[in-house]
Each structure stands twice: as C-alpha cells, then as structure tokens.
C-alpha cells in the first residue's frame, strides 16, 4: 500500500508542483497590460433651430401668412429673419423706402459683422422703381449685401423657405447628375429628343440591340417598335441624320467700321507675297530716287543762266525762219 502511494505520488510531479505554486493575483496581470485611454473626439456642431426666426418688427407682415412649408417663431434678433446659423434677411418695401429712405441704412449698420450672408429682400410695390433699385444696388455692393427682388408676398415667403431648407445642403445638391454606366449614358443619348422618354429608349435598345443598328434602321422599321409613333420616329431620324450645326460667333465691331472676313493663307503663299512686296517696294524706292535725281537736275538747269553763245546764232535763225514763213 505504501509503495503504491509512493509510486502514484512520484508519477504525477505536476500535481505536487501545482499545489506548491503561488496563485496569480489580478494585480500582476494588470501591471503587464497597458491601459489605452480613448482618444477625445470633437463633438459635431449643434444644429441651429429648425424654425425660421422672425423679429417682432415683422408682426402683421403678409409674408408670414405664406410661410407654410417650415415652422417659424418670433425671436429677439437684430435682423428681420434668421434663415440659418450664418444667414439673415432684411425685408424692405419700396413704398416704405420712398417715405423713409434712412430706415434701411440704420438696419444695415446693426448687422455689421454678425452674419456671413446678409440678404435684403426687396418688395417691388411701386411703378417707378428704377432709381431706388439703383441706389440699393450700390448700397449692397458697398456693404457686402445680397439683393433679392420679389413682386408678391408668396414669392418672398418662398425665398425664405428655400434658404432655410438649403441650410445644410451640400454643394452637390445643385450639380447635375452624370451617367455612371454605359446603359445610363445610352438612355440619356436616346432621350435627347423631347418626345422620347426612358421607356421608349428601353424599347428601342431591346429591339435593335445596339445604338448603331438603331441609328441605321429605316423609319418604317422604327414604327414597329412598341410606343414609337410617327412623331417620335420623325424626331429620332432628324436628330441622328441631320448635319451638325456649326455656329460661328461674330465679333462686335464699332459702328461705322467695316468688318472684313480673313481666310487663313498658307505659309508658302504668305512668303511669296512677302517676296513680291519687297521687290515692288525696292522698285518703287529706286524709281523715287531716280525721279528725285532728275527733278534735281531740272531745277539746277532752270536756275542756271542761259549760255551767251546761243544768243546771236539762235536769234538769226529765228529771224530767217520768220522771213521765209511770212
């Protein structure tokens, strides 16, 4: 019995060592692992109020009755309307501006440096509005204002709603969507004529299989495509078979001046013309020198006194001719 127990105890040395080993404390493992602190993250900016803020000065303005797509509420603000965190609007009636022209200038001074986009929403409610609008345009340029004109209260309310709804819109919202695949580009090309829609384009593509076949096919065959009538076939054929239209831009000329159309001249012809011009120029210069020399000689001979030897003989010959002729 004693030997078996001794053998059993000797055959399992791990158990004896396990009993004598020291237990692992939680503190020892935590010292080995590094504690990673979370990185601080910037909190997103708190969005502004979802409603259009309206100044108490605008009580009774008919514009408020037409703001229906977005909520609005009164607030103590320096502007008439706050339509974004960095945008505001001042309302001005030209009828009121004609009676109190100093009003808008005092309101603009209160907004100095407070908003990035400052709009002056002008209600055109007088017939002779050219001069006041010129004055307001100059004021807007000087004070970095944006001038908007409206002719009715619903139109003015629509502007306010549009600016407020576009407060957080991305610049890509007003960018045209370009076709991403060949199929979209093909449908966009086929629907260029006004009467052809996307379903007509799908019918055309599925019938002929390729754009080349659709372009080269006869009008009688196109009429058999589902949804394609005579008008669509005519517009499609005229669109793919007419010549390209080349529009030339005409340069604006001053009044009284004649515009001459110049055709491009090859360089060899230009060089030949230059050589001919130089030859003509040399000939003209030589001729001018020759005529100048001869004229100088004539002047010198005319200024010289007559020869004395000619007087007696010439006079006698002339007298003899007179006698014989007489």
From TrEMBL:
GO terms for biological process: double-strand break repair; mitotic recombination; UV-damage excision repair. One of its GO terms (molecular function) is single-stranded DNA binding. It comes from the Eukaryota. Residues 19-30 have a biased composition (Low complexity). InterPro entries: ERCC1-like_central_dom, ERCC1/RAD10/SWI10, Restrct_endonuc-II-like, RuvA_2-like. Residues 293-303 have a biased composition (Polar residues). It is found in: Nucleus. The keyword Transcription does not apply. It holds the Pfam family Rad10. Residues 1-11 have a biased composition (Basic and acidic residues). SUPFAM superfamilies: Restriction endonuclease-like (SSF52980), RuvA domain 2-like (SSF47781). Residues 52-164 form the ERCC1-like central domain. Residues 1-51, 248-274, 289-326 are annotated as: Disordered. Keywords: DNA damage, DNA repair, DNA-binding, Nucleus. One of its GO terms (cellular component) is nucleotide-excision repair factor 1 complex. Belongs to the ERCC1/RAD10/SWI10 family. This is Mating-type switching protein swi10.
């Amino acid at each position: 019995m004693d030997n078996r127990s001794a053998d059993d105890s000797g055959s399992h040395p791990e158990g004896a060592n396990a009993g004598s080993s020291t237990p692992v404390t939680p503190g020892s493992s935590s010292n080995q692992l590094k504690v990673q602190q979370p990185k601080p993250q910037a909190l997103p900016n708190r969005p502004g109020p979802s409603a259009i803020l309206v100044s108490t000065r605008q009580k009774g303005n008919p514009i408020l009755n037409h703001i229906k797509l977005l909520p609005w509420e009164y607030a103590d603000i320096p502007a008439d309307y706050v339509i974004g965190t960095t945008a505001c609007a001042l309302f001005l009636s030209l009828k009121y501006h004609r009676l109190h022209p100093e009003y808008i200038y005092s309101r603009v001074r209160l907004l100095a440096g407070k908003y990035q986009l400052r709009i002056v929403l002008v209600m055109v409610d007088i017939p002779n509005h050219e001069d006041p609008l010129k004055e307001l345009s100059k004021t807007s340029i000087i004070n970095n204002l944006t001038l908007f004109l409206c002719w009715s209260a619903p139109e003015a309310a629509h502007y306010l709603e549009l600016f407020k709804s576009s407060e957080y819109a991305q610049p890509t919202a007003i960018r045209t969507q370009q076709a991403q695949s060949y199929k979209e580009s093909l449908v966009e090309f086929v629907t260029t004529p006004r009467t052809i829609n996307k379903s007509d384009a799908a019918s055309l593509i599925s019938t002929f299989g390729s754009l080349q076949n659709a372009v080269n096919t006869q009008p009688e065959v196109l009429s058999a495509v589902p949804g394609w009538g005579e008008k669509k076939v005519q517009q499609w054929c005229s669109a793919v078979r007419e010549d390209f239209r080349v529009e030339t831009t005409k340069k604006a000329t001053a009044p009284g001046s004649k515009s001459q159309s110049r055709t491009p001249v090859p360089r060899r012809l230009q060089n030949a013309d230059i050589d001919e011009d130089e030859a003509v120029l040399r000939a003209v210069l030589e001729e001018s020198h020759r005529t100048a020399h001869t004229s100088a000689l004539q002047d010198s001979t005319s200024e010289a006194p007559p020869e004395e030897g000619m007087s007696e003989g010439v006079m006698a010959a002339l007298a003899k001719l007179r006698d014989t002729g007489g």
